[in-house]
Write a structure and sequence with these properties.
The complex is a heterodimer of chains A (220) and B (207). Chain A is 59% helix and 0% strand. With 220 residues, chain A is mainly α. Chain B is built from ten helices and no strands. Chain B has helices at residues 3-23, 27-49, 52-68, 79-97, 107-112, 125-139, 143-153, 159-166, 170-189, 197-206. In chain B, helix 6 packs antiparallel against helix 9 (170-189). The longest helix of chain B has 23 residues, at 27-49. Chain B starts with a helix and ends with a helix. At the A-B interface, helix 1, helix 3, helix 4 and helix 5 of A face helix 2, helix 3, helix 6, helix 7 and helix 9 of B.
Chain lengths: 220, 207
């Protein structure tokens, strides 16, 4: 058996798939050839290490509990990292809310209990529309200005009504009377023949400039 | 039927019972299935992705997916084969999304993490170098080759079972195993003979 032939049989030998006769032949070659003996030893040793070396990491102790909690909650769609973080974030958030309530964080009407610092009311509490909106004092000034403007508008309207009442009203005229007056005013001017409605006896409506004949329809 | 075969049959029957109960939502059965397989699955996934948190995520996902589709599992196969198949698919998906693994790891730090050898003769500095070289070589293999080597040596899966887990033809699995071993041999042949002294003694004793 040559060295290249022997090396091709190494895998089958290690997997226990070699026939007894070929295994014997390979054994004989290994005894005779130092190079093949070394190569085979490397494979055996690497197999031994791969099989017996302990893993330097172990699965976390609470893995089973967390996994079963996920099974019960049906959280399969969430990434495991998010699920894992929720176990820490949830209690932390609850603790933070309790601590904030205890320290009077939500009680804006009084002084904060932390070092007696005066807490400014939030924009929501002042009624401002956005954080950079005017302060409460500016708001009052703006409201006064708006009231003043409304008062001015009301005064102006009342004055206009009074003025209208003192002015003589135009007499109520019918359309025919207005047309008569216009006719008198335009005495001597060319007649408005093509003005629709100028002649009250003509039917009033849009000019029919392009009447469609039956022949045209046939052409189409 | 010898003792080993009898034990295997008992364990198989027990597994089928557990799966039956787990399908009905029995929490204890689910817990037992997790405890039976979590260590080996986690170790396999960690060797594939080399990241503790990532391995935990994948392991958890694999179990959840397996439990979610437990009704489709055929008791004709081992539960571990099915579980490893799911775990391997999730691993591949994650590895595809991530950049390729460089293989440059601090194996000296890893050894001190608790990777004690079972044999007192393999504790020397030289033995540590050989061991580090072997695991480094494994890390540099392609994902299917790495999975083949890990399943074969660390999980005691046969080629047929590996083919089922990796969903590859048997010939491809054998080819992966052959190439992976050849690669390991190439890398190890480059090591100085001095590093092999401890292992040579061990090999001679075994022989």
């Amino acid at each position: 058996m040559r060295c290249d032939e022997a090396r091709q049989l190494f895998d089958s030998y290690l997997d226990g798939e070699l026939s007894p006769s070929l295994a014997t032949e390979l054994g004989v070659h290994r005894v005779r050839c130092a190079e093949c003996r070394r190569s085979f030893a490397l494979l055996e040793v690497s197999g031994h290490i791969l099989t017996s070396d302990r893993d330097p990491v172990t699965v976390p102790a609470d893995f089973s509990e967390r996994l079963l909690a996920c099974v019960e909650l049906g959280e399969h769609s969430w990434p495991a990292r998010v699920r894992r973080s929720l176990y820490f974030v949830g209690p932390l958030a609850a603790a933070a809310v309790i601590a904030m309530a205890f320290l009077g964080f939500f009680d804006r009407g009084r002084e904060s209990r932390v070092a007696g610092v005066k807490v400014e009311p939030t924009h929501a509490e002042t009624g401002a529309l956005r954080p950079n909106a005017p302060s409460a004092i500016d708001r009052e000034a703006a409201e006064r200005a708006i009231d003043q403007w409304i008062g001015q508008m009301q005064n102006t309207r009342a004055a206009r009504v009074q003025a209208d009442e003192s002015t003589p009203k135009a007499p109520d005229l019918t359309i025919l009377q207005i047309l008569e007056m216009l006719k008198d005013a335009n005495e001597g001017a060319p007649e408005l023949r093509h003005f629709p409605g100028a002649d009250l006896h003509e039917p009033f409506g849009p000019p029919d400039e392009h009447p469609v004949d039956d022949e045209d329809v046939e052409d189409l | 039927m010898n003792v080993t075969e009898r034990e295997a049959t008992t364990s198989r029957e027990r597994e089928v019972q557990l799966i039956g109960r787990a399908r009905e939502g029995d929490r204890i059965a689910l817990r037992e299935l997790v405890d039976l397989h979590k260590d080996r699955l986690f170790a396999f996934i960690w060797r594939m992705v080399r990241d503790h948190h990532e391995a935990e995520d994948i392991c958890q996902d694999a179990f959840l997916k397996a439990f979610a589709s437990l009704d489709t599992f055929s008791c004709e196969y081992r539960f571990s084969t099915w579980l490893f198949t799911i775990g391997y698919r999730v691993c591949l998906n994650r590895l595809r999304r991530k950049r390729p693994f460089s293989g440059d790891l601090d194996f000296s730090a890893m050894a001190s993490e608790g990777g004690a050898s079972p044999s007192a003769t393999l504790e020397s500095e030289e033995a540590g170098r050989v061991r580090a070289s072997i695991w480094s070589a494994v890390d540099r293999l392609s994902p299917p080759q790495r999975a083949t080597i890990l399943l074969f040596y660390r999980n005691d899966f046969g080629c047929q079972e590996i083919a089922r887990v990796l969903q590859l033809p048997l010939a491809t699995v054998k080819s992966h195993l052959h190439r992976a071993r050849a690669r390991l041999r190439e890398l190890l042949e480059a090591l100085p003979d001095q590093d092999w002294s401890d292992f040579r003694n061990l090999s001679e004793r075994a022989g």
